[in-house]
Amino acid sequence: MNTDLQDFSHNRFNILTGEWILVSPHRAKRPWQGQKEAVVNGQRPSHDSSCYLCAGNTRINGEINPDYPDVYVFTNDFAALQSDSKTFSVDDGLFKAKSEQGICKVICFSPDHSKSLAGMEVSDIDKVIQVWQKEYVSLGENDTINYVQIFENKGAVMGCSNPHPHGQIWSQSNLPNEVVKKDKHQKEYYEKNKRSLLGDYLAQEIKAEERIIYKNDHFVVLTPFWAVWPFETMIVPKNNQSDIAQMNSQESMAFADAISAITRAYDVLFDCSFPYSSGIHQAPTNGESNEHWHWHMSFYPPLLRSATVKKFMVGYEMFGSPQRDITAEQAADRLRELI
After folding, report:
1. Cβ contacts of residue 72 below 8 Å, gap of 6+?
2. How far apart, in Å, are the Cα atoms of 317 and each of 49, 228, 229, 301?
3. Residue 67's closest CA among 55, 80, 53, 83?
4. Which residues fall within 8 angstroms of residue 270, CB to CB, at 6 or more apart?
5. Which residue of 63, 67, 242, 330 has the fewest CB atoms within a 10 Å radius of its CB?
6. Domain residue limits at 79
């Protein structure tokens, strides 16, 4: 390991977005007198009569949830995107705008209100993955949908308004900013080298063995070299697949195993139900080959030093570039020990 990276401030390059991040390992020793988050570790009931997502309960729009046995999907009652949005554009000098259509869905991972992915069996997580695959394909077949974003916000500190285990899917007609950047850099690398950018990166990570946290027959869990969030991780398939629909049943189960491993480690790290935002970046559904894409799932947790101290993206991060204190290698070491 390059010890300079552990002792001195430096910049690291994100190969997927083309952006730099400032790493300041010496700042991890600074005293903390800032805000401390509340820790909620109380056991939730398996069913909450006041929860809009629990089976059999009535949602705010008057619809009644079925008595679902495992995974339940429905169209978001407060969708950010409209499927019937009028098509229009504005091109008036420096005023530019264009309409956006889309479909937003909510996915309840389990009928058990007390669970999270970390507390679910691998076989039950696999059921969630199968629904992700189905929704990616079905939404992508819609002529107005060119990208499908699967994500989860876990914990109140991440703005999650309901603790019931659930995630979301936002599908839309235009590619969002992060996807545009990753599409560009993966395509440029593929056209030049005829190989997957993430595939080559993964091979280098496996050889280095510095940031690998967990691996099974089909997936690797690692802290990216360019990670921004303190305990950020990425799950990458060993095979070059452009989207999750290309997984077979064995690979899907191995993906579930990888998700289980990292989410359980998160909960042990600071002895709390670990908050994060996670999401899957994969090939657009725009009808192109997209052979340059190598799909991956990222976890962005905000906790920095303990269950009560979180990382804030403010000041320099808002006006300059992202910055982190503990290095990717240090974070990977701590998570690896917990699996």
Report:
1. 55, 65, 66, 107, 108, 111
2. 41, 10, 12, 16
3. 55
4. 303, 306, 307
5. 67
6. 4-336
CA angle 313, 315, 316 (to 5 degrees): 90
Which residues on neighbouring strands pair with residue 107, listed in sequence order? 73, 167
- What percentage of the chain exceeds 70 in pLDDT? 95
Q: Which 3 state secondary structure label does DSSP give 262?
A: helix
Q: Per the structure, how many domains does the chain have?
A: 1
pLDDT given at position 43: 84
Query: Where would I find the H helices in 77-233?
Result: 122-140, 177-193, 197-208
- φ, ψ dihedrals at 151, nearest 5°: -155, 165
The whole-angstrom distance between residue 329's C-alpha and the CA centroid of its chain comes to: 20
pLDDT in tens, 148-158: 999 999 988 88
Distance CA 89, CA 92 (A): 10
What gap in Å lies between CA 6 and CA 332, rounded to an integer? 13
Element housing 277 (H / E): strand 276-281
Query: At 301, which CATH number?
Result: 3.30.428.10
Contact 284, 304 (CB under 8 A): no
Contact predicate 225/211, CB 8 Å: yes
Residue 162 has pLDDT above 60, yes or no: yes
Specify whether 47 is catalytic: no
Between 55 and 310, whose confidence is greater?
55
β-partners of residue 197 are: none
Question: HSE-up of 293 (CA within 13 Å, CB side)?
Answer: 23
166, 281, 294, 296: the catalytic one is 166
Q: Please say whether the beta carbons of 321 and 21 come within 8 A.
A: yes
Q: Which helix (H) or strand (E) holds 335?
A: helix 328-336
